[in-house]
Amino acid sequence: MSEFDGHRWHDMGGREAGAIDLAQHDYALWEKRVDALMVLASEKGHFTVDGLRRALEDMGEQAFETMSYYERWIAAVNQNLLEAGVYTIEELGRRMEEVQARGATYGEAAEKRDA
Amino acid sequence: MPHDHHDHDHLSPSGHPYRKDQDHPLSYWQTMEIAVRELLVEKGVTSDAEIMAQIDRMDARSPADGARVVARAWTDPEFKARLLADASAASREMGFDIGALRLIAVENTAQVHNVIVCTLCSCYPRNLLGLPPDWYKQRAYRSRVVREPRKVLREFGLELPDDVTVRIHDSTADMRYIVLPRRPDGTEGMDEAALAALVTRDAMIGVGVARMPG
Q1: What distance in Å separates the CA atoms of residue B173 and residue B125, rounded to the nearest whole number?
Q2: pLDDT digits over B101-147, tens only?
Q3: Domain spans in chain B, listed from the N-terminal domain onward
Q4: Which of A102, B2, B115, B195 could be a cystine partner for B71, CB 3.0 to 4.6 Å?
Q5: Which of A12, A54, A114 to mutate to test the interface with B (most CBs of B within 10 A)?
Q6: B11 pLDDT exceeds 60?
């Protein structure tokens, strides 16, 4: 293990890195929803952009390397909302099970419950 | 609810066609997004309509917004002075919603070329340019543009003369930069709308310059 050089993993400025990948992807609906949830929940005072960043930074470098941008964002949004007491971890767990049971694709699982 | 869906009509709740990812296997993090969104709606924090409206608002933002601000600055010296003094206020003057963040415009000249980055995360003038390109958020750009900017700019196809100072501006969550590119030569007679068409996203990040007319 290397010694701490005074920069946490997310403090990337000045390090060596490879070529810039100019490929661009279109944002998917679920990603846009994550973005919207971040903006709305913070506008309503449940957390701040600093809270989002704190959670993202504390996820560590492994998360940065293995999860996509909005995967990390929903994890950080969720952590902040749990901390703010907006819902409990039990409510989240139950709801995620329900969502998963609705279908095998995002389209099916996002089709709401209220009949 | 006007936008509420009907089974299998292949439209999302926002009324847009589902994208391809809708048919891919549901991932863990997508499951979390759905669960969090539903809980927020049920708890009264937000509503489906408000989420749709926010997505539409974000979708409507694009580099064309920033380009209008740049073109105004090119044609109106008093506006340009206000933009350089307080880019948030000057942008609001044109009707753009800048939110709480502080926006700073940095002007390219014959002597100085400015570039923006967020080395710590991915802060970007999203209220004027829309969501950032993927490369802006990636390690390679964030790490290298402050270390070897000229080499990075060459990867974007931009070769700057040696006597031009390259200045890199590192954004934060509350303080974001936008580059005011140089107005290209040969554009003297052009109106604001025509000028705006010359202003690219990359020019306002600083990894490019404004297009030449014609």
Answers
A1: 10
A2: 899 999 999 999 999 999 988 899 999 999 999 999 999 999 999 99
A3: 20-59, 61-205
A4: B195
A5: A12
A6: no
- Structural domains for chain A: 29-110 (1.10.472.20)
For an interface test with A, give the residue of B26, B141, B150 to mutate (most A CBs within 10 A). B26
Element (H or E) spanning B39, and its range? Answer: helix B28-42
Q: Would you call A13 and B174 a contact, using CB atoms and an 8 Å cutoff?
A: no
The domain covering B61-205 belongs, at the CATH homologous superfamily level, to: Nitrile hydratase alpha /Thiocyanate hydrolase gamma (3.90.330.10)
Please provide the average confidence, as pLDDT, over all residues in chain A. Answer: 90
Judge: A99–B51 Cβ closer than 8 Å, yes or no: no
Specify the DSSP class assigned to residue B21.
G
ipTM of the complex: 0.92
Tens digit of each residue's pLDDT (9 = 90 or more) over B143-189: 999 999 999 999 999 999 999 999 999 998 889 999 999 999 999 99
Question: How close A17 comes to chain B (CA, Å)?
Answer: 5
Out of A70, A104, A107, whose CB is closest to B18?
A: A107
Q: Do A13 and B29 touch (CB under 8 A)?
A: no
Contact B55 A32 (CB under 8 A): yes
The neighbouring-strand residues paired with B180 are B107
CA distance B123 to chain A (A): 10
